[in-house]
Amino acid sequence: MKISFNRLDRLYQKDSEKYLKACQEVLESGWYILGKNLKAFEENFARYCGCKYCVGVANGTDALILSFKALGIGQGDEVIVPSNTYIATVMGITKNMATPIFVEPDEFYNIDADKIEEAITANTKAICVVHLYGQVANMTKINELAKKYNLKIVEDCAQAHGASLNGIKTGNFGDLGCFSFYPTKNLGAFGDAGAVVCNDEYLYKELVSLRNYGSSKTYYFDQVGFNSRLDELQAALLNIRLEMLDDFILERRKIAKKYLQGIKNPKIELPKLAFDIDGHVYHLFVVKTKERDKLIDYLKSHDIETKIHYPQPPHLSKAYKYLNYDEKDFPICLEYANTCLSLPFYNGMSDDEIDYIIEVLNRF
Ligand SMILES: *Cc1c(COP(=O)(O)O)cnc(C)c1O
Q: What number does the ligand 1 atom closest to the CA of 92 have?
């Protein structure tokens, strides 16, 4: 049995006729940018998240860049951010010329809320939280700190559509919630797409302007903006997928439970639950092992593909060499980068495939 890390084709095949029909309607309509499909998706996604507003943008990275810009965060400002994240989170901060202040992860791979306070200075303007791998960060504590120090919160929800804590969905814990609909995300488009959700009318209007050249009235420009829009074709396809999102999440949780119950190997450390499993949307299933290279090769020899999310933390990347960090900084984050491994995990995985992976892992 050959098992790929992901199988987006399966998700497409299951409902191919719906997608093709939606595409045909958009193509025949003659209206491709900022139209009724986007408006419908923005309304639907805002409702899904339990937020007042949603602004579709070109991708998740832009969602972050536009969010910090809308909050007026720039040169001289510091933003607290997990050291253990995908680099796009950090780019959202540095593209605005602000300075990222990294904080070590906790045992759940998310930012360690107990280490945030010591990173706050007079220049701190915001905390950027990431709900990594689909699990909500420790928002109770983080919201308390934000209130105490009067800080903005930007949520990077790119891996956590529909994830929740105490009945509150991601996108509602802070000022702005940033989403990516990159094809592999839990809610994935058929190309690039993203969105920002919020409950504040000023921020909403600012984002609507920023994504469209800084214009709020056609051909009149209030500020230097971006061209960052979610097109009609992707919006129409996302509208179809949004209706299925809760089913996707239930299926992911079921696969995760099978892995959690089935994998029994002292050499493999399973991901830990910080809260109730019903709030976790399992974007990725990430284990840790001290024998990672061996395990990768072993799985490959059994036709099982794995990936590493992520092999190099942002602060050690060439892109952020100018921040002058080295391997002695953030040792927990580095340990994760050196030991984590993502198992095949996708909607449409068969029981046979899951059982095979578990059986092979237990023989390692
Ligand atoms: C995917 C992802 C992004 C970037 O989204 P794009 O749509 O690829 O630009 C940002 N942050 C995290 C945590 C992500 O997983």
A: 10
pLDDT in tens, 267-322: 999 999 999 999 999 999 999 999 999 999 999 999 999 999 999 999 999 999 99
Our measurement of the distance from residue 10's CA atom to the centroid of its chain's CA atoms, rounded to an integer in Å, reads 22
pLDDT digits (tens, 9 = 90+) for 138-188: 999 999 999 999 999 999 999 999 999 999 999 999 999 999 999 999 999
* Angstrom distance (rounded) from CA 211 to CA 57: 7
Q: Which has the closest alpha carbon to 158: 120, 209, 108, 195?
A: 195
Report the predicted TM-score, pTM, of the whole model to 2 decimal places: 0.98
Q: φ and ψ at 89, to 5 degrees?
A: -55, -45
Nearest to 44 by CA among 223, 190, 144, 179: 179
User: Following CA atoms 103, 105, 111, 114 in sequence, which dihedral angle do they give, to the nearest 10 degrees?
Assistant: -80
Cα–Cα distance for residue pair 22/84, rounded to 1 Å: 38
Selection from 174, 227, 198, 204 nearest residue 59 by Cα: 227
Ligand 1 pocket, residues with Cβ under 6 angstroms: 59-61, 85-86, 88-89, 130, 156, 158-159, 180, 182, 192, 194
Identify the residue whose tokens are 């493999």.
Answer: 268
**Residue in 180, 231, 238, 307 to alter for ligand 1 test, most ligand atoms within 8 A of Cβ:** 180
Q: What CA–CA distance (Å, rounded) separates 214 from 140?
A: 35
Centre of ligand 1 to C-alpha 180, Å, is 6
What angle, rounded to 10 degrees, do the helices at 201-210 and 60-70 form? 120
* pLDDT tens track for 1-37: 999 999 999 999 999 999 999 999 999 999 999 999 9
Token couple for 89: 């989170």
- 130-144 burial string, b = 16+ CB within 10 Å, else e? bbbbbbbbbbeebbe
